[in-house]
């Protein structure tokens, strides 16, 4: 419970530090954070399911898939390993390529971008997966990590993976405005902060040679319009369906990164243009 209380409270901290200039405004936002803490349900005490295994082993000739980042990359909120982000991506990649997929999850619940380096350092020296997926950013927003610093930490991680010869796909920071238990105006201000970070993450990833998917643009609308289905019981992390949608948004970029799809995946072109002109 403490981890999510910190997360919700920290959205308030972002707002108070950046937008609230009067005592009345600060008190309003403090009250809203308290309401959000009461509404959001209990955490997943057992953590995410362990999805690390060879998926569709009968296909043979396995591809290696690495998941790096925070609780979304780790699959917190899914009830079964096949419903985690890693499990969904592994199954989708196996179906698309006709090859088995060996999944390794280095992601840690609660991780900020500054912790990506430690996740990579914990991998075997000779480990070089075919493709890595990075999802991170929400905790940077809630913990008031400066956007430039969070983006720099992500860029360093993407470069480190590329130096290993790994293709990288980054799902940028989700839109915190989808968290319905967080009242307005707190939610709107959290949304703005998360979108600012996502834009910086996109530019940083492209500079480092990675592929980008805007989770806010591609799957964010589903979380906003169908929160009961897309969020797990804690109303904070994705449900199995939420992870299914997220994996579907990321999979085309995995195939493109592996040279198996010449098309421009949804969510990539707009970010590429923004990075070149921004």
Strand content: 5-15%
Order of helices and strands: HHEEHHEHEHHEHEHHHHH
Radius of gyration: 18 Å
The number of helices is: 13
The major β-sheet equals:
6 strands, mixed
- Multimer state: single chain
From the spread of the alpha carbons, the general shape counts as globular
Strand elements, count: 6
Distance between the termini: 39 Å
Provide the structure class.
alpha/beta
Work out the helicity level. Answer: 40-55%
Low-confidence stretches: 1-22, 269-278
Overall pLDDT, averaged? 78
Read across the widest sheet, the strand sequence of neighbours is 1-3-2-4-5-6
Describe the structure.
- The chain has 278 residues and is α/β, with parallel strands linked by helices.
- The chain contains 13 helices and six strands.
- A six-stranded mixed sheet has the order 1-3-2-4-5-6, with helices on both faces.
- The protein is globular, with a radius of gyration of 18 Å.
- The termini are far apart.
Topology:
Blueprint: H1 2-18, H2 23-39, E1 54-55, E2 63-69, H3 71-74, H4 85-97, E3 101-105, H5 116-121, E4 131-135, H6 138-142, H7 147-163, E5 167-171, H8 186-207, E6 211-213, H9 215-218, H10 220-225, H11 227-230, H12 240-257, H13 269-277
Parallel strand pairs: 2-3, 2-4, 4-5, 5-6
Antiparallel strand pairs: 1-3
Helix pairs in contact: 1-2, 1-8, 4-12, 7-8, 8-13
């Amino acid at each position: 419970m403490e981890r999510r209380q910190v997360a919700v409270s920290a959205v308030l901290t972002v707002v108070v530090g950046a937008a609230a200039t009067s005592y009345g405004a600060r008190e309003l936002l403090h009250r809203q954070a308290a309401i959000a803490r009461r509404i959001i349900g209990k955490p997943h005490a057992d953590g995410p399911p362990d999805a690390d295994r060879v998926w569709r082993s009968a296909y043979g000739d396995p591809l290696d898939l690495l998941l790096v980042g925070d609780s979304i990359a780790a699959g917190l909120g899914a009830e079964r390993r096949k419903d985690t982000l890693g499990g969904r991506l592994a199954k989708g990649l196996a179906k698309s390529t006709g090859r088995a997929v060996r999944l390794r999850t280095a992601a840690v619940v609660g991780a900020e971008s500054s912790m990506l380096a430690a996740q990579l350092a914990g991998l075997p020296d000779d480990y070089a997966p075919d493709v890595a997926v990075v999802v991170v950013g929400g905790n940077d927003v809630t913990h008031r990590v400066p956007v430039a610093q969070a983006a720099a930490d992500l860029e360093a991680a993407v470069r480190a993976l590329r130096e290993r010869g790994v293709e990288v796909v980054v799902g940028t920071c989700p839109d915190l405005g989808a968290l319905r238990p967080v009242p307005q105006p707190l939610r709107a201000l959290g949304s703005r902060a998360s979108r600012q970070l996502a834009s910086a993450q996109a530019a940083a990833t492209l500079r480092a040679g990675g592929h980008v998917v805007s989770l806010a643009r591609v799957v964010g609308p589903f979380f906003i319009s169908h929160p009961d289905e897309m969020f797990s019981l804690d109303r904070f992390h994705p449900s199995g369906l939420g992870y299914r949608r997220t994996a579907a948004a990321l999979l085309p970029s995995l195939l493109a990164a592996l040279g198996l799809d010449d098309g421009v995946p949804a969510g990539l072109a707009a970010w590429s243009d923004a990075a070149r002109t921004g």
